Each structure stands twice: as C-alpha cells, then as structure tokens.
Amino acid sequence: MKLKTPGIILFAFCILTVSAQENVVLNKPNIIFILADDLGWKDLACYGNPFSETPNLDKLAKGGIRYTQAYAACPVCSPTRASIMTGKYPAKLQLTNFIGGMRTDPQSPILPASFKPYMESRETTIPELLKQKGYTTGMVGKWHLGDQDSVAPWNQGFDYSRMIGKNGLDYYNYSIYIDSYQKEFTDHGTEYMTDKLTGYGVDFIKQNAKNPFFLYLAYSAPHVMIVPRADKLSKYFIKYQNSAEKFNPNYAAMIESLDDGVGAIIQTLKEQGLLENTLIIFTSDNGGLGLDELGPIPTSMAPLRKWKGHIYEGGTRVPAMVSWQGKIAPGKVSDTYFSSIDYLPTLCELAGISSLPQNIDGISVLPMIMNPQVEIAQTRPLFWHYPHFSNQLGRPAGSVRIGDFKLVELYESGKLELYNLKEDISESNDLSGKMKGKTQEMHQQLVEWRNKMNAQMPTASPGYKPVKK
After folding, report:
1. pTM higher than 0.90, yes or no?
2. Domain span at residue 351?
3. Where do the DSSP E strands lie in 335-432?
4. Are 166 and 147 in contact (CB under 8 A)?
5. Residue 469 in domain
6. 46 and 62 in contact (C-beta within 8 Å)?
C-alpha cells in the first residue's frame, strides 16, 4: 500500500494488515454506504443520546467500529456528498455550498464566493471505479449534486437509480425518478418516504445477491421538514419530561424510522446469506440542525459548538460506524479522525483498485478499519472551506485541524481562533492570543492549502457601509 501522507499510517501497521487485505480483495465484498441527512453527532443512542431509540444502529456500532471524530468535508450537504463520491475536497471541486444556497448579508463587508451548483460530469466517482471491478452499482435516495441529466446518478456510474425528485422535503408527498427523468414514481400520502427508500434498497440487494454490488443508500431523514410517522410518536411524548435536556419527539420518531431502515437492510443481508461478505458504512453528511428552520429546533450538538452550516465542530463532526461481520473486530470505539474525502480511496483499496483518479485528496483508511487495535499517528491536516452565509446563520470561514489543534479563520474580519479539541471539545477557549506562533503556523498552512485548491474566496461588497459608532 502506498502512503500519500507521511506519518499517517505506520509501516508496521501496513505489514500487519497485508494478509487481511489480500483476502478482502479476493472475495470482492459487497459494499453498502448508508448516508443520513443532517443527523447530528449525538443523535443516536450509541453516541449517548438518552432519548432516541436506535437499536439497529446501536447493534451495528457494537458489531464493528464506532468513530468519535469522523468529519464531513463541509458543514452543508452537497459539498460533502461530492467529497464522498470523488475523494476530493469541496474547495477543489468548487462546489462549496449546498445547491441552491445563495444567501447574502447586506450588513456584511463581503459577498459570498461563487461556486459551481453541480458536481461536474468529468469527475470520476466511486461507482464508476467499482464497475471496472465487476460491481453492480445502486443509488437510492437524495442525490443533490446537480439537476442536469449529464450529472444525474444514472450518468455518474450507477446501474440502478432511485433518486428523490419533487417535494424532497415532504415525507408523504414526493416523487422518485427511476433510472431517468422520463420515469417517475409519485406518492400522495401512501408510503412514508424513509420506508420507500428502504424498500428500494432491499430490492436492489435481492436483485444482485449473486454478484458483488455497491449500494449508496442516501436517506433524506432526518432533514427538515420534521414529518414523522404518527405511529412512532406516542412513546416519545410520554418520556419527554424524563430528561433535563429536552429533545424533539417528532425528530426522534424520524430517526427511529431511519433506524428501522438500517435494520431491514441488515435483515435482508442475513436472509440472502450476504452479511459476512458485506462491508457496511453508516454516517451523516453534516452536523445536525440546532435552530428553528421550517419548524421547531430539531436537535442539539452540545457539547459541540454550533450546528449545521457552521465551520465549528457541531457543523462538521458526524457519527460514523463501520461493520463487517467476521472480518472487523467488534466493540471498538475509535478516536482516530478522518474525513469524508477518505471514503473513495478506502473503498477502492477494499475492491483491489490500485489506479486511483488523479489529484484526489483522501487517503485509504482501510488498514485502520481492518486492524482497529493498532493506533495511527494523528499528524495529518484536515481542511474546511465554507465561504458562504448558511441558512443556519453560519458565516464565511475556513479551518484546519492538525492533531489536537484546530484553527478557525473568520473571512469577514480575518480573525483567527485556535482551539485544543482534546481539552476543549466545545471550542470555548480561544488560545490564539497565548499561542501566537502555533496560530500563525497553522494559518499559513490553511492559506497555502487554499492556494493549492484554487479555492474561491468571498469578495468585497460594493454596497457595504460601515455603521458609524
């Protein structure tokens, strides 16, 4: 295995994993990648949530590895989804905001950066690479990487596409495009959308049980609007008063439906005799929503700072777990940090693909997955670039994490903030004044990275008039 980042994976670690990885490649394991939408870092019971009931995801976590410091490459959805598909930072793709995000602030001295409202068709995706190894590829759910036919999932490497179409935020009135824009399923209150997506995922597994497959199951839940199934609500209202921190019963019911879906997928694998030859990844596209947007506040990221749409930990740190029965040691909780840019090279190594697309930013973390008992040196920088005003009141900013330290740059003022995440998970103690050398060193790395990415930056607002004091 070639290492692209010095120090990130120890040579001895690679030696220990050779035989395991050889078996992996020979068997061409099935791969199921389940992506939740706006699911917060502590929304699941296995992450300490005392209100949500998520028995299937809890079992999945116990059967494999649960990560406490997994990251989305952006605090909003489209850029993170593109990073998963391509292994590249959103800044390099110039897809740095959710598609349709055009918010400005007349009180700000800057205008948000321009960005591409789609993932370019020339980008090489995970399914395109896996198809070269004989995989059948399926996409179910939320795409949100462009509306044109050339950038739709059926033209980005997927053999089977069931993409959410019209009314994507309404869980009882929606449509699904079936392999093209010409064939469309429309529902008017018959089947809850989360359940419908699960059904498509189950169908894909059954149809392809005899050949290696890759299923990208991208749920829309628990994204607003907060529309739960009525039959799941009563128990959450009954126990609403049982904890000091208040949780949204409607949101919890939506998460339970998501959990049911994961359970149905796993049960199908068992029935088809596929569970021991299937790697399952579960994660979220960004942090949870922590303010009123299309209804009451869905969730809280505490003790993390802020939420979706913000460059702080609440916007980028996400739940993530990996399970493979009989291949990955169960019951492991890992503090190793990694990013959504790492999924493409990891899955390529899993499938025995040695020739990767040029200019990707992620690295394979397969050795870490296959041998979770071995510690990995955490010296690799991870970067974020969000030069926009989010719908969730986030401001234009960028950041870099190296080891325990994280630097934040606020683009409107140029202010720098420095945090030690190991000692200060809430990012409440700014160390930039006490550690000026460290602050400048990390800022230089952030600037150099932006230049390397050719990152689009905010521009001065010609209409801005400073408020006279």
Report:
1. yes
2. 21-374
3. 338-339, 381-386, 397-402, 405-410, 416-420
4. no
5. no
6. yes
Q: How many CB atoms lie within 10 A of CB 132?
A: 12
Q: Cα–Cα distance between 221 and 229 in angstroms, integer? A: 12
Nearest to 44 by CA among 194, 340, 36: 36
Q: Does residue 453 lie in a domain region?
A: no
Which of left, alpha, beta for 246 (phi over 0: left; psi -120 to 50: alpha)?
A: beta
Q: C-alpha distances in angstroms, 64 versus 41, 188, 330?
A: 18, 39, 4
Structure token digits, residue 450: 């932006």
Q: Assign residue 98 the CATH number of its domain.
A: 3.40.720.10
**Tokens (6 digits) for 361:** 């930013």
**Does residue 26 come out as left (phi exceeding 0), alpha (psi in the -120 to 50 range) or beta?**
alpha
DSSP letter string, 290-301: -S-SSSS-----
Interacting residues of 59 by C-beta distance below 8 A, sequence separation 6+? none
| Dist. CA 98–CA 12, nearest whole Å | 41
pLDDT tens for 140-191 read: 999 999 999 999 999 999 999 999 999 989 999 999 999 999 999 999 999 9
| Assigned token pair, 130 | 């896996």
Take residue 234 and report the two structure tokens written for it. 């009563």
Dist CA 288 CA 106 (whole Å): 27
Reported as a single tens digit per residue, the pLDDT across 216-247 is: 999 999 999 999 999 999 999 999 988 788 89
Q: For residue 114, is it within any domain?
A: yes
First to last CA, the chain: 60
The token pair that represents 249 in the structure block: 């019963």
Count of structural domains, the chain: 1
Distance from C-alpha of 223 to C-alpha of 461, rounded to nearest angstrom: 32
CB 369 within 8 A of CB 338: no
**Backbone Cα Rg of the chain:** 21
Residue 443 domain-assigned?
no
Mapping DSSP to helix (H, G, I), strand (E, B) and coil, where does residue 184 land? strand
> Which of 444, 349, 404, 385 shows the shortest CA–CA distance to 113?
385
Evaluate the CA torsion angle 265, 270, 272, 275 in order and state its sign: positive
The structure tokens listed for 154 are 């059926």
Dist. CA 358–CA 129, nearest whole Å: 13
Pull the structure tokens for residue 75: 């605090």
In DSSP terms, 383 is beta-bridged to 400
